[in-house]
């Protein structure tokens, strides 16, 4: 009578036993890495906009300040997308016949707003406030990346809760002087940790309670 | 796809082949997978940004809301151009910074999907142009006959601009007539002043100066346009710091009223018995009328109250209510004159100098006689709320040309040829006078959502001044007052929300004449039906507000209906139990209603509230409760005798949010009552009770410690806090079916307790929000850490973490957590509450909770967060009084105090160390951050024996 189990069965059995332990661990690991992956976070996704507005051209090239268009960023929760009127301050004089700007001109002529695709989307139960971050020394490029080099806007950071908490726990790695907030070229100095701690004291940033659920959720 | 699938016949769809079924299944899977990706959101900026607008940040505008014609000054809070919340205007004399339930709910009525959107001609959609074309030939006729047969029917009008327009209409049509019908009017009060002073006067009692107050069926603390101002003045006179001036109130009432509950001494009596008390008190003052036959309890009550009133001459006041005859009102003016009572009189301001309005009865008679050619009804629902004997419903159709302007296509709209949609008060310019006559401008917060016009617009149309806007009209009214720098004056007046210096001067009334009043006998074996306006729907005009329908009656806690209250003795005699349906009949008119056996109802009396049984209110208010107007006649508006009651042999469940339970002796712990005289000697009930050892982490001492104190002595149970919380926190309505299953969503409820005392039970209200326990029992039982504490002492609920185990709710001793059994706000809304327009009311600062999620009060964490961010940006700490919770801001008596307990200057901290402070269920060592101040009553020693 032939043997029920051939010698290879030992290997199979070992593999099965090993995978009993490994598969759940791998599955959880896969799940977590999937959740943090651009596939879920939409990081670096470029969206089709009605007007292919280039931050690289306007900021990097022309040197406009962020607040020229995002006027409310230091006073309100939302940075604000500029009204058509803001575009037309320049484009009523410059590139007045450019085909690319047809939606802008039509918006003003017909009093119909331009419908932009949202790039940075936080869940509805997250109440993020731009103004408080700016007041406490978090620069634009810390979260939005090198906007001055983006021909089309994309989400530079993962915007996951873990990513938020990294900074809420250790803001010293990111805090910069208030006059550098809107500086796209700002790079952390060599002594950033020490400098960041000094600025935290100056700005009265206390991380003890900065991770309370109710700080961002309600 | 096979033809069978494209059909809509369900039987065809059921006949699926295996392939079709698989195909559909695969398509669903594909949709489900695609649905997992985040939805693409759009950002839609302005083309031209309005000046001063900051997206996502609230703006506050002062304006005025009408309540039975009187103005209530409010601050409308608007986010991105959408009004989302109402708060009181501290500068306005009717609001004093507080609101009532009706004002809080007004913001939802703006977005009511049942609002009328277009003119309607005999049931079919028409246009404003068509109406104008129909109106012009009609007006041409009246141009010839000087307006004979042209009638205007309105509610109470106090708007100076509207009165000016009516005057203008009369110059054009001198033979036209103006009729006023207000279901909850003050005709008896007016008749009383006419009897006493020889002319109609408007009384303004000063409750803050009244150290002794006797209310005979009067309910100054009850719902109505003067509730807030009366409640604030009443509590000002009840400051325990000022024990000598602490007021004492005696209430004899035929209905369970808020004033009666808050009284120091009370008697439940038949209206005739209440009249007898007035006569007997007048006799003590030397009136010398025939002494009525008083039962011993009334006699003792009269003797004590009268002596107390006389002893406080100049600081004593007697108030008479709606169910009393005009003679009794006149008699109480005579008594007040003897007492030199703190009460002012002003000339009535709900009429123009040139034109006195006529009555609805006169109009009914003229319609019957065919003398009415054109009838214009401005915002009045006579088709529903007219007294039954006037047969308005039967005769309105006889008018050749009838027009109804209203927010809803209601009962009256159906009886008129034309229905015209009216603009909401938030959509139009106007002006209104407050209960004390102070004028205020009403400015729009939003452009009209639909093709609507205001009453001003319709009157300009009637006067053929079509080009004039209501904005210009209102400005024109006030231009003489504003003077030379009118634009500056106008901006300042709009900003303040009140026109300074417009309160009428008080009239120096001559000594009132005393009417000769005789006691009327109670009709034996017959019940007297006492009607009152409803605390939720008033006269029926708010019937389509889901917030108000689900707002529990202060005393019975009934929602979604108006059961008939009957005393226990009468119920036994008639063999009726709570929930039995009865037929109430008067002559040939019959209504059916379930009964509610109630302690507060005196023998021989049944109580019913107005405003229910609406037929055309809308999806929310239709066919709920019984229509009391069917039994109301123009000579018996509030007290109807000769009503017969008979069991209908049916039962109907009465929906309540609080079940009546009797806990032996526990009321003394849960709702302690102190007596003013003993207050100084009393020790704190929970004086420094040693805390038990605990595994809970200690509260953080290095940041804010939010805490709340609720003064139960000041709470009048008006529910303003409850509706304010609902508006602020996007609290959904569950509907009557869910209420019947014992579910409701109010984050804050107002409990009612009564102390089982012989003869005179002390009853009181206790608002219960989340206690924010330091040792919160809900937290350790949550398997997913959705119920967590934050460093500032808030017991936060992380909605996006909650998986709906409901362990926290089970473990909460205060039962303040609310579970979304269905998507009450998220896809499974009651009736039409899922409509797109309703979403515009939601507060964008608060998450809307999904099905399967637990929710609760968090001390308005969004307001704390806003204040914290503002303070941090300015590099300071949050100041005392900077965070005001929604319930706190609404409270007319300022019973709720909120603040940082780590701030040594905080009022809340000071109150917590006072002698009346107690913790609810403190023995559980939950260390609640919300604590209460014990109720405080000021007993008269002579009657004290009854409180053993």
Topology:
The complex is a heterodimer of chains A (218) and B (948).
Chain A: H1 8-35, H2 38-41, H3 55-61, H4 66-69, H5 84-91, H6 102-110, E1 116-117, H7 130-135, H8 140-144, H9 161-169, H10 192-202, H11 213-216
Helix pairs in contact in A: 5-6
Chain B: H1 3-6, H2 10-14, H3 18-36, E1 42-43, E2 58-67, E3 70-79, E4 82-88, H4 101-110, E5 120-121, E6 124-125, H5 128-145, E7 150-154, H6 160-172, E8 177-180, H7 187-197, E9 202-205, E10 212-216, H8 227-236, E11 248-253, H9 258-261, E12 265-268, H10 271-284, H11 296-311, E13 316-320, H12 326-339, E14 343-346, H13 360-368, E15 374-378, H14 382-385, H15 392-395, E16 401-406, H16 411-415, E17 418-421, E18 430-433, E19 439-442, H17 455-462, H18 470-482, H19 486-496, E20 527-532, H20 546-549, E21 564-566, H21 568-573, E22 580-586, E23 589-597, E24 605-609, E25 639-651, H22 667-670, E26 673-675, E27 706-711, H23 720-728, H24 736-740, E28 749-755, E29 762-768, E30 787-789, E31 795-797, H25 807-811, E32 818-819, H26 836-839, E33 854-855, H27 861-873, H28 886-890, E34 896-900, H29 907-912, E35 917-918, E36 930-933, E37 935-937
Parallel strand pairs in B: 7-8, 7-15, 10-11, 10-13, 11-12, 15-16, 16-17, 20-24, 21-23, 26-37, 27-36
Antiparallel strand pairs in B: 2-3, 3-4, 5-6, 5-17, 9-14, 18-19, 20-25, 21-24, 22-23, 22-25, 27-34, 28-29, 30-31, 32-33, 35-36
Helix pairs in contact in B: 4-23, 6-17, 7-12, 10-11, 10-12, 18-19
């Amino acid at each position: 009578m032939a043997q029920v189990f051939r010698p290879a069965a030992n290997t199979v059995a070992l593999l099965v036993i090993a995978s009993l332990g490994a598969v759940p661990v791998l599955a959880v690991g896969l799940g977590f890495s999937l959740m943090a992956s651009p596939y879920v976070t939409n990081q670096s996704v470029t969206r089709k906009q009605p007007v292919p507005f280039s931050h690289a051209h306007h900021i990097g090239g022309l040197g406009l300040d962020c607040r020229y268009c995002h006027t409310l960023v230091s006073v309100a929760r939302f940075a604000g997308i500029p009204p058509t009127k803001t575009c037309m301050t320049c484009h009523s004089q410059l590139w007045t016949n450019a085909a690319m700007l047809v939606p802008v001109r039509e918006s003003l002529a017909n009093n119909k707003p331009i419908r932009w695709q949202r790039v940075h989307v936080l869940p509805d139960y997250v109440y993020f406030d731009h103004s408080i971050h700016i007041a406490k020394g978090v620069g634009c490029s810390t979260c939005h990346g090198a906007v001055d080099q983006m021909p089309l806007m994309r989400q530079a950071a993962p915007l996951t809760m873990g990513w938020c908490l990294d900074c809420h726990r250790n803001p010293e790695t990111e805090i910069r002087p208030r006059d550098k907030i809107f500086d796209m070229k700002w790079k952390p100095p060599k002594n950033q940790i020490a400098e960041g701690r000094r600025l935290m004291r100056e700005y009265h940033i206390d991380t003890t309670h900065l991770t309370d659920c109710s700080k961002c959720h309600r | 796809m096979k033809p069978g699938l494209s059909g809509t016949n369900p039987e065809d769809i059921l006949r699926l082949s295996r392939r079709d079924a698989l195909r559909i299944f695969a398509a669903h899977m594909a949709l489900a997978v695609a649905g997992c990706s985040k939805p693409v959101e759009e950002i839609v900026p302005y083309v031209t940004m309005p000046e001063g607008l900051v997206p996502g940040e609230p703006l506050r505008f002062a304006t005025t809301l009408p309540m039975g014609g009187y103005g209530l000054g409010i601050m409308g809070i608007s986010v991105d151009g959408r009004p989302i919340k109402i708060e009181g205007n501290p500068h306005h004399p009717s609001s004093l910074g507080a609101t009532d339930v009706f004002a809080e709910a007004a913001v939802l009525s703006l977005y009511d999907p049942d609002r009328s959107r277009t003119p309607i001609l005999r049931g079919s959609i028409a246009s404003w142009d068509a109406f104008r074309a129909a109106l012009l030939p009609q007006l041409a006729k009246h141009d010839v006959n000087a307006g004979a047969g042209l009638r205007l029917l309105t509610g109470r009008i106090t708007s100076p601009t509207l009165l000016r327009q009516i005057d203008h209409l009369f110059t054009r049509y001198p033979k036209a007539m103006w009729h006023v019908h207000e279901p909850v009017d003050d005709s008896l009060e007016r008749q009383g002043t006419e009897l006493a002073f020889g002319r109609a006067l408007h009384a303004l009692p000063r409750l803050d100066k009244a150290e002794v107050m006797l209310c005979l069926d009067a309910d100054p603390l009850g719902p109505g346009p003067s509730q807030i101002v009366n409640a604030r003045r009443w509590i000002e006179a009840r400051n325990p710091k000022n024990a000598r001036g602490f007021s004492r109130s005696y209430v004899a009432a035929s209905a369970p009223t808020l004033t009666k509950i808050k009284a120091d001494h009370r008697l439940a009596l038949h209206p005739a018995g209440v009249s007898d008390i007035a006569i007997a008190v007048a006799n003590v003052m030397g009136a010398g009328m025939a002494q009525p036959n008083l039962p011993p309890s009334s006699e003792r009550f009269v003797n004590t109250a009268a002596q107390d009133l006389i002893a406080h001459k100049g600081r004593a006041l007697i108030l008479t209510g709606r169910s009393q005859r005009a003679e009794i009102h006149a008699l109480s003016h005579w008594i007040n004159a003897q007492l030199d009572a703190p009460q002012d009189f002003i000339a009535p301001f709900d009429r123009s100098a040139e034109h006195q309005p006529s009555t609805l009865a006169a109009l009914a008679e003229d319609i019957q006689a065919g003398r009415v050619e054109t009838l214009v009804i401005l915002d009045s629902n006579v088709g529903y709320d007219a007294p039954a004997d006037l047969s308005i419903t039967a005769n309105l159709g006889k008018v050749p040309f009838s027009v109804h302007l209203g927010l809803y296509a209601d009962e009256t709209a159906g009886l008129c040829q034309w229905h015209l949609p009216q603009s909401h008060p938030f959509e139009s310019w106007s002006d209104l006078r407050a209960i004390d006559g102070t004028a205020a401008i009403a400015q729009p917060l939003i452009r009209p959502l639909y093709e609507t016009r205001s009453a001003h617009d319709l009157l300009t149309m009637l006067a053929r001044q079509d080009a004039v806007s209501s904005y210009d009209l209102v400005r024109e009214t006030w231009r003489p007052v504003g003077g030379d720098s009118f634009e500056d004056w106008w901006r300042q007046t709009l900003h303040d929300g009140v026109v300074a210096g417009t309160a009428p001067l008080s009239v120096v009334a001559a000594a009132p004449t005393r009417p000769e009043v005789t006691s009327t006998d109670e009709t034996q074996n017959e019940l007297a039906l006492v009607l009152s306006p409803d605390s939720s729907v008033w006269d029926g005009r708010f019937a389509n507000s889901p917030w108000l329908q689900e707002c529990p009656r202060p005393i019975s806690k009934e929602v979604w209906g108006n059961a008939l209250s009957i005393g226990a003795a009468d119920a036994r005699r008639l063999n009726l139990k709570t929930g039995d349906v009865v037929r109430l009949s008067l002559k040939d008119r019959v209504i059916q209603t379930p009964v509610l056996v109630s302690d507060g109802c005196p023998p021989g009396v049944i109580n019913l509230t107005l405003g229910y049984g609406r037929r055309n209110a809308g999806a929310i208010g239709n066919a709920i409760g019984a229509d009391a107007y069917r039994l109301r006649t123009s000579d018996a508006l509030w007290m109807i005798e000769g009503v017969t009651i008979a069991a209908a042999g049916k039962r109907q469940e009465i929906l309540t949010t609080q079940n009546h339970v009797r806990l032996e002796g526990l009321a003394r712990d849960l709702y302690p009552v102190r007596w003013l005289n003993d207050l100084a000697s009393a020790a704190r009930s929970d004086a420094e009770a040693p805390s038990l050892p605990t595994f809970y982490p200690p509260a953080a001492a290095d940041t804010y410690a939010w805490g709340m104190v609720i003064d139960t002595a000041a709470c009048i149970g008006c529910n303003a806090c409850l509706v304010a919380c609902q508006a602020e926190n996007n609290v959904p309505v569950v509907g009557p079916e869910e209420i019947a299953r014992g579910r409701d969503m109010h984050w804050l409820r107002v409990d009612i307790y009564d102390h089982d005392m012989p003869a005179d039970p002390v009853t009181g209200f206790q608002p219960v929000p989340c206690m924010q326990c330091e040792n919160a029992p809900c937290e350790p039982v949550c398997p997913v850490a959705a119920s967590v504490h934050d460093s500032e002492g808030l017991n936060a609920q992380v909605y996006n973490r909650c998986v709906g185990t409901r362990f926290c709710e089970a473990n909460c001793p205060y039962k303040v957590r609310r579970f979304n059994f269905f998507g009450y706000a998220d896809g499974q809304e009651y009736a039409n509450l899922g409509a797109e327009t309703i979403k515009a009311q939601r507060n964008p600062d608060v998450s809307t909770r999904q099905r399967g999620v637990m929710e609760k009060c968090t001390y308005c964490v969004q307001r704390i967060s806003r204040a914290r961010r503002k303070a941090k940006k300015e590099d300071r700490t949050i100041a005392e009084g900077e965070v005001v919770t929604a319930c706190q801001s609404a409270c007319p008596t300022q019973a709720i105090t909120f603040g940082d307990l780590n701030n040594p200057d905080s009022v809340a901290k000071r109150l917590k160390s006072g002698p009346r402070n107690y913790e609810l269920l403190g023995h559980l060592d939950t260390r609640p951050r919300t604590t209460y101040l014990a109720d405080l009553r000021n007993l008269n020693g002579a009657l004290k024996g009854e409180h053993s």
